[in-house]
Each structure stands twice: as C-alpha cells, then as structure tokens.
Amino acid sequence: MTTDTADTAAPAAPLLRAEDLHVSFAGRNGAARARAVDGVDLDIRRGEIVALVGESGCGKTTLARSLLGLVPPTGGHVTFDGKPLDYSSRALKAYRKRVQLVLQDPSGSLNPRHTVYDAVAEGLRIHGYGGDERAAVAEALSRAGLRPPERFFLRYPHELSGGQRQRVVIAGALVLEPELIVADEPVASLDASVRGEILALLLRLRTELGLSALVVTHDLGLAWNIADRVAVMYLGRIVETGEVEQVLTAPRHPYTQALLSVLPEAPGDPVVLTGEPPDPSRIPAGCRFHARCQILASGEAERAGVADACRGRDLEVLDGAGGTQVACHWARATVAG
Length: 337
Fold this sequence. Notes:
alpha/beta, Rossmann fold, 2 domains, seven-stranded mixed sheet, four-stranded antiparallel sheet, 14 helices, ATP-binding, ABC_transporter-like_ATP-bd
C-alpha cells in the first residue's frame, strides 16, 4: 500500500552559512580586543544575491574576508555546501576555486606588468588547470562582456577603461567557474555611466550560470538594483535583514532609516547621524546604535516605554535564514503595540 504525501520538502540548505560568527583583533599595548564582527548569522542560497550594507568601519569587509577564509573567525563557524570550512592550506585552495573575490579597485587588483590574458589565466595556473587554457580565458572574457576576447589578450591594464578593467577582474573570477562570488564595492570606483553595465553583468551571470553573490557596499541604491535580500550591518552586527523591497521601502531600524534618508529620491529631510560609530573595542551596553539614535534622541523611544532597554539591554543575534528581522527595541515595541 502506498501513501500520498503533500510536498512538504524543507527549503534547500544554504550554499554558504555563517553561524554566530565573531572576528576580533588584538588591541595595541594591552588595549581591549576590537570586535570587528561580533555575532553574525548569515545564509546565502544558491542563485541568490545578498547585499551587505553599512557605513565604512562597520565590519562588513572583515565579515566578507572571514567568509572567504582569509580571516579565521575567533568564534562561531562558516559552512559551505553543508561542510564546515577547513582552514588548512590545501582545503582553502580548493574552497577558493569555488568562492571567488571581486575587489572594488580594478586598478589595484591588476598587475600593471601583466597582460589581460595573464591576469585572467593566473587562477587557472595556480589551481593546475589541465584543460585548454586559451579557450577558458576566452570564454571568461566573453562572459564578462569583453568581445571578441582575443582583441584584449595582449592589452595591459593602462590601455583599458575603468569599466573594462573591472570586467577583466570579473573574468579572472569566472574563469574558475565558482559557485559564489564576493564582490566588495564592485562599482564604487566607476563612473555612473558604467556602474549600470557592471550591475547588469552581475545579474546576467546569476541568470546564466546560477551564481550566488554577496555584494558588500555602502550604497543602498546599489542594493536596491541588484539584491534579492539585504543585511544592514552596524558595529559588527546585522541590525536589520530581509527581502530587499521590504527592508528598503519600509525600513524599521532607525539606522536603516537614516541610511535611506540621504538617497536623492527619499521623501522628507535627511537624517543626520551625530558622531561616529563607537570604537569596536568599546561597544556600548544596550543597543549598540543608541548613542546616535534619532528615535532615542527625539523622545519617541521614551514614549514607547523602551528607552531604558535601548540604553541597557542587548539584542540577540538575528537569524540569518532570510526572514524580515530587526534588532531594535523601539521597532519591536511599535509593532507589538
């Protein structure tokens, strides 16, 4: 006898997962350790683009480098394709074939003495590629939008435009056929006219190759144009996360609201945050944003009955699985009310 069952299959496991990740650095002359990443859960699913946004110094680049295995965590762990990340040299070499980094400055990423061909072929040579190197380089350049690829083989970086150099960097990542790319400010150094082309390229690569991507940026406009989900980071933690349209059209955390308020198309007056983010070696008690929070300063948190909690009660690490979440006493109180 057979029994019909409803399709209740669980969602596919994430391609990459960080669980309670911590990265800290020793302070100078006996100073307290700087907690650059201070408890982060984050999932990236296959074929998904996640934007990690926040001010400079919030920990997002350190988090990205830890996910790449470049900075071992001091707590928590990273899993890729269901297996814990192994930090031995051999295991990391194999991992970095599957997970590639695209840096923000193509001029700094490319050796000025290397031709485009050598720049793209470098990864193949490091990993002992046994196939047709010329064909692989040509295919990667073509996928990155440099066509015909042979026309670029013998050029040097100084002979290319900024957009072309960024495409070469992307081709250097694509040549190894990775499953995930981590793009750190991929269009920050490019002219506005070229930014859209590179973003369109990343979206096309996701569609054609099934690539996953973590895009690290301070630009919420970029996140809106490219990401499926967004994670907003402040002082070592993700403070708001969810589907990009939900978070960016109805932000709940005061920090996210402030970041969005300075975009040209944002309604109302920009929110000017006072002061700088606190020192990561001296993270304040309570909500780590409370010293700069416009909601607390205006008295709204007091009226909602959460001002003391804002100043003295820490918030838990947000689940990285993808639902809309916010680490804010005031936001939670106003929803509950």
